[in-house]
Amino acid sequence: MPTVRDIVAALNRWAPEAQKADFDRVGLQVGDPEREVSRVLVALDLTPEVVDEAARTGVEMIVTHHPLIFKPLARLTPTDLVSGLAFRLAQEGIAYAAIHTNLDALRGGVSFALAELLGVENATTLAPERGMLKKLVVFVPQSHAEAVRQSMAEAGAGQIGDYRDCSFSGEGTGRFRATEGTDPHVGAIGEVHAEPEVRIEVLVESWALGRVVRAMQAAHPYEEVAYDVYAVENAHRTVGYGAVGSLAAPMPLDAFLAHVARQLGAESLRYAAEPGATIHRVAVCGGSGMSFFGAALASGADAYVTADVTYHRFFEPMDVTGRQRLALIDAGHYETEWITEQLIADRLAGAFGGLEVARTEHRTSPMRTWTGTAPEAR
What are the pLDDT digits (tens) for 175-233? Predict the structure, then answer.
């Protein structure tokens, strides 16, 4: 039976916490890491109803997309929603973890699930992240070059998009003088030694750097390994926000709006679009995605489906003539992210045989749409 620690580790292997946004708080927030878990409940948000459901059904752990705790708690008392829910979880002995922007930024994560739900094909990352990569360079005697190269690859180095075991090698000569107290693999103490060596370069994701360096050092014959780590500004091929691709066939705007509402279960949509537009290329970002509006526009998308669009930002698709350059569609935060529940549940069920994983029976969004008739505004 897995422990809370095992489940959090599995989530972290899938969507590394190092991928999260700086403001975010993910991972284990409440509970004993060593507690064994037989049942997990998955929800988009942690609400009193979700905690009640977990307690009623004998769940030992809850996993949500949106974190409960964003800011450090000054006290743990049942006096407000956040501290009160954390207090209740502790009372019930229910562990709680969140997987948020690290899942948003994952290729195959939230936005890719949204794209699939909307029928967007051949999706790629809309806004790839930068600053997530390092270049590791190590100097190895020729006799051990392949062993070191292989060890780094097995530890996760050398991944470029869908390619694995990528590296570059160049031959040269390394020189060093071993001093008293050392135990050189080659050369004599006190003498300058020249050794034919191979320079091996690999790309490494920043969160895997420590693991890769340890693997490299373990395979390297020298007691003092010469290596360099460089920052790389390349965009990460598989880490970033949003997704963009194309529908199987173009759709008139009205038909596309109806399709979005139907697929997402949205009671209403807020949008700005050119009347009579045709939608073929579609960009999406689950949740608050206006930070990536520029990327959506640059991608050549006919529509951008996201959430939390404020009034003035609906003017941004408009050019100087008043023409809407793309259809900007606010489908709702909950509506564009509820698919995350199934994404997380499927991952955990696949990772742990025998673990019972369920989605909450509750719609966790507090927002409702009023569709009554209002008196005429004055």
Answer: 999 999 999 999 999 999 999 999 999 999 998 999 999 999 999 999 999 999 999 99
Give the pLDDT confidence of 252-286 residue by residue, as tens digits.
999 999 999 999 999 999 999 999 999 999 999 99
Q: Could you give the CA distance from residue 358 to residue 57 in angstroms, rounded to a whole number? A: 10
Domains of the chain: 4-102+338-359 (3.40.1390.30), 110-128+241-336 (3.40.1390.30), 132-232 (3.30.70.120)
**pTM for the full model?**
0.86
Share of the chain above pLDDT 70, in %: 99
Give the sheet arrangement for strand 227-232, strand by strand.
168-177, 192-205, 133-141, 227-232
Contact 175, 239 (CB under 8 A): no
Residue 221 sits at the vertex; the CA angle it makes with 217 and 225, to the nearest 5 degrees, is 50
DSSP secondary structure letter of residue 208? G
The kind and range of the H/E element at 286 are strand 278-288
Q: Output phi, psi for 348, to 5 deg.
A: -70, -40
Distance CA 55, CA 372 (A): 37
Residue pair 44/64 in contact by the 8 Å Cβ criterion: yes
